Amino acid sequence: MTGRGIMMPFYEYFTGKGGQILLEQKLIDVYVDGNGAVVGAKVQGPDGKIQNYKANKGVVLAGGSWKANPELRRLTDPRFTENMISTGYPFVAPDGSAILAGVRAGGILVGDRCEDTPHLRRKFGTAHYGFPKGSKYGAPGLGISGPRWAEVIFTNKSGDRFVKELDKANLGGYTFYDAALAQPDQFLWTVFDDATAKKYKWDTKYPTCEEGHAFTAGTLAELAKLTNQPNLEKTVARYNGFVDTKKDEDFDKPAESLTKKIEQGPFHAVRLVLCVHNLTGGLAINNNSQVLGQDMKPIKGLYAAGETAGGLYVGNGMPRAIMPGRWAGEHAATSK
Ligand SMILES: Cc1cc2nc3c(=O)[nH]c(=O)nc-3n(C[C@H](O)[C@H](O)[C@H](O)COP(=O)(O)OP(=O)(O)OC[C@H]3O[C@@H](n4cnc5c(N)ncnc54)[C@H](O)[C@@H]3O)c2cc1C
To answer: Residue 122: pLDDT above 50?
Structure first.
């Protein structure tokens, strides 16, 4: 089921009960009274006007994580630099403002680590993601899953392979992403030949791929020149040798994945952009989704759910939003 399939019944239930949803409103801060209780929210509309809302029962912070904020997300992992993109862009770009509002109200942070992140975009071509054209994130994703990793190699800006091409595999104490993030400027290519491109219908041309992020050339020597990868030819020749012998002497790619030589021109090189996907940290909450202060006691009137909350592990993704959201609502509704 898609997110929409999950959210629409909630929407219908909420609005059916008289609930009102205001779109394009940005939470700027929460109001805290003299006793430390959260009593309202300061919100900015699209016209820049500020509205103040008094909370009858409480405020639930649900503004996602800080994965789209290059400064803050470096607290999670210093390797998550500016040149990475956050998944969900351009539809959601959580900047951590909800978490920070909770911190200003006295909440503490907990449990920050990254899980299942960074990511490669998994559909081929910019177009699939609805990115604005000319976006600086214009590099296409790859339709890479399972067996497709057998048909490509990943190279760095010198044109050297740097990893065994296996998705999420335990590569002996490190992951594909650890290796990718360690490359100079995190500048990465996927290289494959035309037989693979045709097989998976990977179209490297604009508008499927942004110009400047995907290249095609009749020979490997030309492709190396176009993409400024001086070692590419040598790398591909060595890799093809490993396919012949079924033994990857450099990175130990398993024999069952050494099935396809990169040999039939034209040849393609597509830039990879790594993504930050799922951060597990956020505001510390209790079983009622109440935000906890430095004394580990709940801050009256303040709740957090979804990726704004951390520490309470109830699974990732939607369950993490739905369950704590429900606990917050139940507690707030019955609180005095
Ligand atoms: C590509 C992709 C695929 C996924 N696939 C799955 C899946 O298959 N299954 C699954 O369970 N989960 C999946 N997830 C994860 C799931 O979508 C998220 O975990 C979930 O949507 C998090 O919900 P959230 O409400 O906490 O945050 P978000 O969905 O990030 O929503 C937060 C919202 O708050 C807004 N916001 C931020 N700050 C403020 C502010 N100050 N004021 C007002 N609004 C603000 C943001 O713009 C955003 O709209 C996927 C996520 C992505 C990106």
So the answer is: no
What pLDDT shows up at residue 18?
A: 96
How far, in Å, is the centroid of ligand 1 from the Cα of 66?
A: 11
What are 133-138's contacts with CB under 8 Å, separation 24+? 133/207, 133/210, 134/210, 135/90, 135/210, 137/85, 137/89, 137/273, 138/209, 138/210, 138/211, 138/212, 138/213
For the CA of 315, the nearest atom of ligand 1: 11
Average pLDDT over residues 126-154: 61
64 C-alpha to center of ligand 1: Å?
Answer: 6
Burial of residue 192 (CB within 10 Å: 0-12, 13-18, 19+) is buried
pLDDT digits (tens, 9 = 90+) for 173-184: 667 778 888 899
Q: Write down the residue that tokens 């239930």 correspond to.
A: 13
Residue-averaged pLDDT of the chain: 86
Tell whether the model's pLDDT for residue 185 goes beyond 70.
yes
- Rounded to two decimals, what is the model's pTM? 0.86
- C-beta of 100 in contact with ligand 1 (< 6 A): no
Q: Is 280 in the pocket of ligand 1 (CB under 6 A)?
A: no
Mean pLDDT, rounded, for 45-72: 96
Mutation test residue for ligand 1: of 92, 100, 103, 123, the one with most atoms within 8 Å of CB: 92
Q: What is the rounded distance in angstroms from the CA atom of residue 317 to the CA atom of residue 314?
A: 9
- Beta bridge partners, 52, equal 42
Domains in the chain: boundaries:
20-112+279-334, 122-276
- Candidates 3.40.50.11440, 1.10.10.10, 3.50.50.60, 3.20.20.70; correct CATH number of 20-112+279-334? 3.50.50.60
Q: Is 90's C-beta closer than 6 angstroms to any atom of ligand 1?
A: no
pLDDT grade, residue 313 (50/70/90)?
A: low
